[in-house]
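step=encode ok
step=design start
structure_in=
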């Protein structure tokens, strides 16, 4: 008996590619994000702090938990002054802080234009509870990290492994605020996660 031959599976062409004929990846991502009830702020590196101040206005530092690695100096200074930083040495105390926080702030590693999804590689001091337990999740998205869809995201992770960098044990694909319509088809927001998700898209100035 001959061995079964593996057949090549053709992946359907997503509408995202057709939309890219007339729109940028960022534009497609924003339209997808609006469909999943994510709130959108567009800014630049120079104006990022002003945008964050506007979003968290009137909120004390002990109500804002951040989990960001290798932030630019200006952003790092703001995080030190206006947020409580996730500290791996504190163990479960971080989770207690996340449960009480109003805002959780993270950087995303990738964003998917097709679905408005953000990808978080939860490694080292990037605590996953920051995106799950606070009332509002703020996601900082560099515009150049937006890819068309899941296929490209998986390819980038594969390339990372081939380069010997490895991947963390937890990779979160988050598509907007938590919601469920399991009970009698009524949409309920915030069932098992944030009530609101705010995408802050950072576009480098030309």
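sequence_out=
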């Amino acid at each position: 008996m001959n061995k079964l031959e593996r057949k090549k599976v053709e992946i359907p062409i997503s509408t995202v590619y057709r939309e890219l004929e007339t729109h940028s990846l960022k534009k497609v991502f924003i339209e997808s994000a609006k469909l999943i009830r994510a709130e959108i702020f567009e800014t630049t590196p120079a104006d990022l702090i002003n945008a964050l101040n506007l979003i968290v206005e009137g909120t004390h530092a002990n109500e804002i938990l951040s989990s960001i690695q290798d932030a630019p100096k200006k952003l790092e200074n703001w995080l030190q002054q206006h947020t409580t930083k996730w500290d791996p040495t504190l163990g479960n105390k971080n989770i207690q802080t996340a449960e009480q926080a109003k805002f959780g702030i993270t950087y995303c590693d990738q964003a998917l234009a097709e679905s408005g999804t953000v990808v978080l590689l939860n490694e080292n001091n990037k605590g996953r509870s920051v995106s799950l337990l606070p009332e509002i999740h703020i996601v900082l998205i560099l515009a150049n990290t937006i890819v068309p869809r899941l296929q490209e995201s998986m390819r980038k992770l594969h390339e990372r492994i081939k380069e010997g960098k490895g991947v963390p044990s937890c990779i979160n694909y988050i598509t907007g605020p938590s919601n469920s319509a399991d009970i009698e088809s009524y949409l309920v927001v915030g069932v098992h996660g944030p009530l609101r998700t705010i995408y802050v898209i950072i576009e480098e100035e030309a």
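step=design ok
step=annotate ok -> The first helix runs from residue 15 to 19.
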